[in-house]
Design a protein that fits this description.
- The chain has ten helices and seven strands.
- It has 255 residues and is of the alpha/beta class.
- It has a seven-stranded mixed beta sheet with strand order 3-2-1-4-6-5-7, with helices on both faces.
- Strand 2, helix 3 and strand 3 form a beta-alpha-beta unit.
- Helix 7 runs parallel beside helix 10.
- It is globular.
Length: 255
């Protein structure tokens, strides 16, 4: 019933959510955008241990002219579970998942929007993902720890084996789905952990839904919940589980 739903998964985000929300609303409420596009924001508190929900509600009350909904999950599902919940309850004709840290430049939504206009001018099933691949040799990536960069390259190698090597950056938390695509992909999603992005892209591939990759600006933001070693091992395990279930036919998907 509206043009755009913005899905924001949040876990213990009291420090980073305010600035991210301000940047998001500044863009969506700019004159050129507001006149042509209706929107809603859905903040999914993924069982936070801090006051994320209370803060989100307070921020929503400060922006009563904007359609902001806050959903509080009683238990922590994982980022993928929070995104899935938001996607299945969103009202938008297009649905954007975006991280609460504000690492991706929100104005780059327009680049994804333009690409989707080209791929699916009649609202066909389409996915457009933000990509940081062009930043590999820039300070944005070079300044990250050596261990994190080694694991990043290792993950990319595994992804080529799994079947999504055609996407240079699977993990960027800035992805736009047409409503038709979201309605096919998210009901079939199983993984709720960090690697859920890969499952979404694999599902799109299996469903024959075109996926385009668009370069976006990105910067490191302090306060990441990612435990590099622990979560990398979990990603590897989940990738194996994902591929095994798909190859054996336990996780089936059909258009």
């Amino acid at each position: 019933s509206i043009d755009l739903s913005v899905i924001i998964p949040a876990y213990n985000e009291t420090s980073r959510l305010p600035s991210m929300l301000e940047t998001t609303l500044d863009h969506l409420n700019s004159t050129s955008i507001r006149q042509t596009r209706t929107y809603e924001l859905i903040i999914i508190d993924d069982g936070s241990k801090d006051d994320t929900s209370a803060l989100a509600l307070k921020l929503a009350q400060q922006h009563l002219n904007s359609d902001i909904r806050v959903v509080t999950l009683e238990k922590n599902l994982g980022k993928g579970g929070a995104v899935r919940h938001g996607m299945l309850h969103a009202r938008g004709n297009r649905l954007l998942m975006v991280d609460a840290d504000g690492a991706s430049r929100f104005e780059d939504l327009e680049l994804l929007w333009k690409k989707m206009d080209q791929l699916g001018p009649k609202n066909e099933p389409t996915v457009v993902v933000g990509s940081r691949a062009h930043l590999v040799k820039t300070e944005a990536v070079v300044k990250r720890s050596v261990l994190r960069n080694i694991l990043m390259y290792g993950l990319h190698t595994i992804l080529r084996v799994v079947g999504v090597g055609h996407i240079r950056d699977t993990q960027c938390g800035f992805k736009l789905f047409s409503r038709c695509a979201a309605q096919q992909i998210f009901p079939a999603q199983h993984l709720a952990t960090w690697i859920f992005d890969v499952e979404l892209l694999l599902l799109a591939k299996q469903l024959g839904i075109p996926v385009a990759e668009v370069p976006v600006q990105w910067h490191e933001v302090a306060g990441s919940k990612l435990n590099v070693v622990k979560d990398s091992l979990q990603m590897l395990r989940d990738l194996l589980v994902l591929r095994a279930n798909q190859l054996t036919g336990r996780w089936k998907v059909s258009p």
